[in-house]
Amino acid sequence: MQISNDEFRSYQPLLFSLGYRMLGSIAETEDVVQDTFLQAYQVDERKVENKKAYLCKMMTNRCLDVLKSSRVKREQYIGPWNPEPLLLTESGDENPADRLLQKEGLSIAYLRMMEHLTPEERAVLLLRDVFEFSHGEAAEIVGKKSDACRKIYSRAKKKILDVEEENLPYEKNRSIVNHFIRAFQNNDREALLKLVSENVTLYSDGGGKVRVAIKPVVTSARVIPFLFSIGKNVPDDFYYEIRNVNGQPALVNFMNGGMQSIVSFFVVEDEIQEVYITMNPEKLPVE
């Protein structure tokens, strides 16, 4: 199948966007995108009616294979598993990749919930809700009949808590994160309790490579002291930036000459419901 330079520039962000949402890993997604294009060049073009749909089908099938093969690896992962944070430009309109990635279905909260789905359910839900393929098109991509695809989609919607990402306004949530930082810096526990849900859950991902809590920390009575205990041990060269991570404001922390962690938040109705601390060095971006 022939793919022009213009087509490559158009389809590459689409395939990366699909793959990242399915896998939650930048490195794995990049490998699968490259493999998809290499395989596509070997396909007889006379068998392809719609290049976009065909490439999405190839990408989806390869992601399904990766998910099935990595299931045991995920189960053996030390501590909570957070999706690999993805740094985006603030505006989201500088390149096609950012424009696609700014669509719904990208937040850390959404990607974590996707872990509750089977690989097929994950694929169908993304194809229908995020990439807006019809049931018939989604069925063709995953190799199912249309009725079966509808059942998979219905089952997936029932199993996953719906993160209404249109209700995750970036600027409003950035203001809440700023208030959270100020309260933390001022040791204002009363202000923190107003910002954080009583049932807040903190997931710290170190992958066994750095010391973190190996179980989720639950309730504000435990999460707030846990965060303060972390803050006591930072070196003099520590600093942070508020950056766009997976379409939401997050803390990107630096110390000892490099990036140390990324702290993301799930905010619902002006209240922090979940906190995700990613410290696994293999998951932190190299800038």
UniProtKB/TrEMBL annotation:
Xref: Gene3D superfamilies: 1.10.1740.10, Winged helix-like DNA-binding domain superfamily/Winged helix DNA-binding domain (1.10.10.10)
Domain RNA polymerase sigma factor 70 region 4 type: 109-160
One Pfam family hit: Sigma70_r4_2
GO terms for MF: DNA binding; sigma factor activity
Entries under SUPFAM superfamilies matching the protein: NTF2-like (SSF54427), Sigma2 domain of RNA polymerase sigma factors (SSF88946), Sigma3 and sigma4 domains of RNA polymerase sigma factors (SSF88659)
Protein origin, superkingdom: Bacteria
Biological process according to GO: DNA-templated transcription initiation
Domain spans labelled RNA polymerase sigma-70 region: 8-70
Quaternary context: Interacts transiently with the RNA polymerase catalytic core formed by RpoA, RpoB, RpoC and RpoZ (2 alpha, 1 beta, 1 beta' and 1 omega subunit) to form the RNA polymerase holoenzyme that can initiate transcription.
Protein name (record): RNA polymerase sigma factor
Organism placement in taxonomy: Bacteria, Bacillati, Bacillota, Bacilli, Bacillales
